[in-house]
Amino acid sequence: MNHVAIDIGASGGTVYLGRVTPTDFDVREVHRFENRPVRRDGRYVWDLAALRERMVDGLEAAAERADGLDTVGVDTWGLDFGLLADGEVLRDPVSYRDPEATATREELFASVGKRRLFAATGITNWNTPNTLWQLHTLAERDPALLERADSLLMMPQLLTTLLGGDQCGEVTVASTTQMVDPSERAWATDLLDDLGVPTALLPSLEEPGRRLGPVADDVAERVSETPELVTPASHDTAAAVAGLPLAEDGAFLNTGSWFILGVERDAPVRTDAGFEHGVSNELGVDGTVRLLTNVNGFFLLEECREAWRANGEPAGYDHLLSAARDAPARAALVDPDAESFDIDGSMPDQLRAYCRRTDQPVPTGQGEIVRCLLDSLVTKTALELDALAAVTDDRPESINLGGGGVRNDLFCQLLADATDRPVVAGPVEATAIGNLLTQALAVDTLPDLAAGRRLVASAFETTRYEPTDTGEWERAKERLTDLPSA
């Protein structure tokens, strides 16, 4: 069968055509587009009309290359959502990067306490602008908007509805909200009631594989096809992990705007150690739980590239990585999660200012800045992997890498060195593969996730990086631990 995966991240989207049989798995990229928050009325929002047009462009490109389209599935980042009334979107969704989106975060923490939030939802992420914080801010600052709404959809379901699909919720992306009980795989309504967050807006939660009806008539007319919309693993990290040939004793690292590092488990972990080390429980395919931590990832690099492009400077990856190879190793480190790094202003200037404040060598050229970022990202990942091992009392022996970092040889080798573990990079398009795999599960082409992963392991190449230079990384972890998070 022919499936289309629409994979949209916080900096761009890609459309893939996949053909899946019980013995073969083929994936081709057919369309790519940019996606960044746009500034309207003083807020950073997602342009839904533009996203719909770009998705349909992608479906047209897929239809031109296939002898029929059977299903379509959309995955996106987590956290963000749309509010609807009578099926109409009330406003373009605000980006979680918007500085005002979570203005009442500290009030929320004071109201119920972080320990109760973790006990109820299995989520920590105290620096990640979760859906709960955004809804709490709306309830406190703009209750009229919530009163007008009759439903809330997370971004992948919202975009699927715009293509013609039925409304529903889906557990993998809902579990990023800090609003779901991971044991029950259902909304944590007691917590939400105590916070004054309206639960009547929330859709029923479905597992991946829900069939949502055909595409809208105007979409079918443009693509000359009427494929069925299906809910895949609609959180991009859930899709990526599903699409990795994950070793039983291995960790996963999905690299995009955020780095998501974790291990797969059968049940959530809500212990004192889990709370103290800041791990979170997000939901995966076939009843799995991803025990993980978040690190602000390639967002920092992409913001640097955007600033350099705006200044007329070269910003291609080959150029930047070549310059980074020649730059001094570990000369300066930054905490990627420092609150001073935000969407406003020049990111290269923000990085230099951080290094000045922390009495470190200030990176000047592009190579030094990129090397600073890569060194910092792998060091922070190594620290988070240590924390994860302490929570599970089980040291992961390898790292399966997915996302954009797979194509970055320098990053992959630095990651192996910093963590002192082999890194298995690939498949390159793990998120798309996981999206397509869960569509194949929905139409019974494959029996279960394990069978899908065996098929992925046989159909796609991976690259293995062994640690070769581990000498200075323990000191780098100590330096990063001592840096401020502000």
- What proportion of the residues is helical, as a percent range? 25-40%
Number of helices: 19
Distance, first to last CA: 50 Å
Please give the radius of gyration in angstroms.
Answer: 21 Å
Question: Topology, pairings included?
Answer:
Elements: E1 2-8, E2 12-20, E3 25-34, E4 38-40, E5 43-45, H1 48-64, E6 71-76, E7 81-85, E8 88-89, H2 105-112, H3 114-121, H4 131-141, H5 143-148, E9 151-154, H6 155-162, E10 169-170, H7 171-174, E11 180-181, E12 186-187, H8 189-195, E13 205-206, E14 211-214, H9 217-223, E15 228-230, H10 236-242, E16 250-255, E17 258-265, H11 272-276, E18 280-283, E19 289-296, H12 299-310, H13 317-325, H14 347-357, H15 366-392, E20 398-403, H16 409-419, E21 423-425, H17 430-442, H18 449-459, E22 463-465, H19 473-481
Parallel strand pairs: 1-6, 6-15, 10-13, 16-20, 20-21
Antiparallel strand pairs: 1-2, 2-3, 4-5, 7-8, 7-9, 11-12, 14-15, 16-17, 17-19, 18-19, 21-22
Keywords:
486 residues; alpha+beta; Nucleotidyltransferase, domain 5; 7-stranded mixed sheet; 6-stranded mixed sheet; 19 helices; 39% helix; globular
Task: Describe the structure in your own words.
The structure is a single chain. The chain has 486 residues and is α+β, with helices and mostly antiparallel strands. It has two domains: 2-236, Nucleotidyltransferase, domain 5, CATH 3.30.420; 244-426 and 447-486, ATPase, nucleotide binding domain (Nucleotidyltransferase, domain 5, 2-Layer Sandwich), CATH 3.30.420.40. Helices cover 39% and strands 21% of the residues. The protein contains 19 helices and 22 strands. Strands 18-19-17-16-20-21-22 form a seven-stranded mixed sheet, sandwiched between helices. A six-stranded mixed sheet has the order 3-2-1-6-15-14. A three-stranded antiparallel sheet has the order 8-7-9. It starts with a strand and ends in a 5-residue tail after the last helix. The mean pLDDT is 95.
